[in-house]
Amino acid sequence: MFITETEIKNFRTHLIEEERADATVSKYIADVSAFAEWLGERVLDKAAAMEYKSTLLETHAARSVNTAIAALNRFFDFIRRADCRLKAERIQAQTFADEERELTAEEYKRLLTAAKGNDRLYHMLMTFAGTGIRVSELQYITVEAAKAREAIVKNKGKTRTILIEGALAKSC
């Protein structure tokens, strides 16, 4: 058995009905479609799924492979082929970011200086540095939230409160 376009379309509908985020739906469908294309007319079985995982590991980081595996496993469950489910790659947690990837205080000041004259960019940089939010959470940082010195962020099915520090709140 190979994967049909109808199964992929029905899976998309299923994800939407589960109220998955648009980005999640797009990512899952892209991952399943890529697997279906790779699989072609071959039989869908555990061995084929494992071979696909191996090919992904040759060209992709383990985290990327794991997101594809999550999409495929959900699809396998949807089409009642749990026998094809894959195990995620184990990743050792990094407790700290590499210092080389962190901005120094001097680099941050240079970014702010370069952004002067572009108020939107300037405040975005201050917001990211001052709150540690994700790009997708920026929409919750409003002038009203800054004046209240907190924003309620709803992302990925979770709600959290972001505290907005004084300098950022005063700049609004």
- Contiguous uncertain segments of 5+ residues: none
Q: What fraction, in percent, of the residue positions are helical?
A: 55-70%
What best-fitting shape do the alpha-carbon axes yield? Answer: elongated
How many DSSP-defined strands? 2
Percent in strands: 5-15%
Oligomer: single chain
Read across the widest sheet, the strand sequence of neighbours is: 1-2
Rg (CA only): 22 Å
Supply the helix-strand structural class: mainly alpha
**Main pleated sheet:** 2 strands, antiparallel
Summarize this structure as a short list of keywords or feature phrases.
single chain; 172 residues; mainly alpha; two-stranded antiparallel sheet; 56% helix; elongated
What does this structure look like?
This protein has 172 residues and is mainly alpha-helical. 56% of the residues lie in helices and 7% in strands. The protein has helices spanning 5-17, 22-39, 46-59, 62-78, 105-115, 119-131, 143-148, 166-170; strands at 150-155, 158-163. A hairpin with a 2-residue loop joins strand 1 and strand 2 (158-163). 15% of the residues are buried.
